[in-house]
């Protein structure tokens, strides 16, 4: 019960709002929301310094946003160089 209350269990079999399994969680977003990999990348384009975790078998493991495919472009209005 303590594990459930601590938020350490993720219902992988239940899809997120996009229909994909939510295996990623952000420690810095309010409420520690869970995301699928593409939603996590999209939600963090403007927050590249947030700390995330990935659900691995039976626990959350520290991860990097670059593992979601996030790329930070510093010039050209946030778009890749031409």
- Principal-axes geometry comes out as elongated
Let me know the largest β-sheet: 4 strands, antiparallel
Strand order of the largest sheet: 2-1-3-4
Total helices: the number is 2
Terminus-to-terminus distance: 53 Å
- Assembly category: single chain
The proportion of residues forming helix, as a percent range, comes to 10-25%
Radius of gyration computed on alpha carbons:
14 Å
Structural class, from secondary structure content?
Answer: alpha+beta
Q: Stretches where pLDDT falls below 50 for ≥5 residues?
A: none
Beta-strand content = 15-25%
Number of domains: 1
Order of helices and strands: HEEHEE
Quantity of strands, as a count = 4
What's the overall average pLDDT, rounded?
Answer: 85
Question: How would you sum up this structure, described in words?
Answer:
This is CxC2-like cysteine cluster KDZ transposase-associated domain-containing protein. The chain is α+β, with helices and mostly antiparallel strands and 82 residues long. The protein has two helices and four strands; from the N terminus they run αββαββ. The chain has helices spanning 2-5, 37-43; strands at 24-26, 34-35, 52-56, 59-63. Strands 2-1-3-4 form a four-stranded antiparallel β-sheet. It is elongated and about 40 Å long.
């Amino acid at each position: 019960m303590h594990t459930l209350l601590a938020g350490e269990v993720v219902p992988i079999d239940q899809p997120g709002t996009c229909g994909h399994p939510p295996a990623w969680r952000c420690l810095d977003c309010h409420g520690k929301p869970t995301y699928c990999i593409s939603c996590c990348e999209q939600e963090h384009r403007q927050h590249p310094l947030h700390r995330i975790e990935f659900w691995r078998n039976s626990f959350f493991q520290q991860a990097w946003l670059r593992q979601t495919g996030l790329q930070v472009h510093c010039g050209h209005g946030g778009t890749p160089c031409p």
